[in-house]
Amino acid sequence: MSHGVRIHRNHPRSPIRGTGHPVNNAPHTASPGGARAAGRTALATLAGTTLEWYDFFLYGTAAALIFNEQFFPSLSPTAGTLAAFSTFAVGFIARPLGGLVFGHYGDRIGRKATLVVSLLLMGIGSTLIGAIPTYDTIGFWAPVLLVALRVVQGIGLGGEGAGATLMSMEHAPPGKKNLYAGFPQMGTPGGLVMANVVFLATNALMGDGAFTSWGWRIPFLLSFVLVAVGLVIRLRVTESPSFSKVLATEDVVKFPLRESLRVGFPRLSLTLLAVVANSAVAYVFMVFTLSYGTQHLGYDKQFLIVCVTVAAALWFLTIPVWTTIADRYGRRTMFVWGSVAVLAWCVAFFPMLDTGDSVLAVVALLGMGLIIPVTHSVQGSIIVDTFPVNVSYSGTSVILQSGAILGGGLAPMISTALLDAGGSSTGVTWYLAGICTVSLAGAVALFRLVPERAPVPEPVPAPSLAGDRT
Questions:
Q1: Where is the Major facilitator superfamily (MFS) profile domain (predicted)?
Q2: Rounded to an integer, what distance in angstroms lies between the CA atom of residue 391 and that of residue 255?
Q3: What single-letter DSSP state applies at residue 109?
Q4: CA distance readout (Å), 151 to 93, 141, 146, 156, 163
């Protein structure tokens, strides 16, 4: 029997892909406890992803404002910032590894167990970052330890994004797939808000001198407490109903990653292109803007962090609005026009910041917080709907983590290099406009490739492998 992806062409519930109706993972299976269990799972995925992104963004903020002095003091300010952003990028390079490992076991043994381990890894990595000595104490080994712990963070987060989206989406009631898949997406701005609030509060209580010297460690050490709370919440959820059905029907496959790639290169590559700009724009906005605004434009550090935090709060609050619209009216048109809006705002973003006018800076930053969620809110459900349920963790991880490294991980470093080479933000604007144009073209091509009324991917058949869970 073939191990490729089977398509059920006359399924009685064949969905309209892009309308928000059940698209993947076969017919919806109600979870134990119905809507209450689904809601509890959605909140658990939101709490878990928020805590993981808190750790991840805490590092990004510290890399932009602190780590160049503490871990690369012998370098020039620009070179030190580049080096700090390089360690930030290392976490993205490690994310595909985490996605591969956690994706494999998430499709073999279940979503819940892998999500618990991923949260533990992120918490341990962040806590230890708060404890490592700086360059002045142990020299060369300080940045080495920083990079090693950043790898641990990256592996942990690499297993989180796909698993949390799947867990919430597979528990969703019929007709609310996009809404429930959006809860883990809310963890990204939620984690940023939490990280910046803790960062600002600690800095305000201690003053700049003490905070730069040692106070920056406190937000990292706080991760231990936050992750403990997250684990209590996450351990209370039940396994995904869709994956439980895979186990019951013995549809587990031995190499889920290999089977997920049978979707085909055209669709995989176009899906990747469609989501890569969102990652790049978000990380330039959330991370690069802090160093650029303080070092080159003279904005106050606290002013920029507050603006980015408020923008992230808007991002967080508007995701349920956009996912509800996607469930009701369809996500395709919303995603395309959202991509156009992101492109347009990227063209205007740095020129507004460069004026040095605080009012225009607020408008630029808050505008990002309102526009980014239009596409970000549904990118998880778009990716998940590409794969059959028994290989969806692996397949979704490949797309998410590849997009993260190509877009987000390299964006602050590329932007810093372009700024240094050109002496102005013009190169950064062209870079963002270019990647947004590529993503917009990818989204349009993807939606043309996949018909509006698409067949339902059935689980990859593997009856002879069902007993092997390793």
A1: 41-454
A2: 9
A3: T
A4: 8, 15, 9, 9, 19
Locate 116 and state its tokens.
Answer: 């618990």
Per-residue pLDDT of 417-444, as tens digits, reads 899 898 889 999 999 999 999 999 999 9
Rounded to 5 degrees, φ, ψ at 293 are: -65, -35
User: What is the token pair recorded at 297?
Assistant: 């434009």
Helix (H, G, I), strand (E, B) or coil at 168: helix
Contact residues for 243 (Cβ-Cβ < 8 A; gap 6+): 110, 111, 166, 170, 389, 390
Collapsed DSSP state (helix, strand, coil) of residue 24: coil
| Domains parsed from the chain with CATH numbers | 34-452 (1.20.1250.20)
Residue 101: partners with Cβ closer than 8 Å, 6 or more residues away: 155, 158, 159
CA–CA separation, 222 and 55 (whole Å): 10
Each residue's pLDDT tens digit, 183-236: 999 999 998 899 888 888 888 888 878 888 888 888 888 888 888 887 887 777
Angle at alpha carbon of residue 284, lines to 278 and 288, rounded to 5°: 165
Taking the C-alpha atoms of residue 118 and residue 187, their distance in angstroms, rounded to an integer, is 15
Rg of the chain over all Cα atoms, to the nearest angstrom: 22
Can you read off the two tokens belonging to residue 173? 């009631």
Residue 405 burial class via C-beta count within 10 angstroms: exposed 0-12, middle 13-18, buried 19 and up: buried
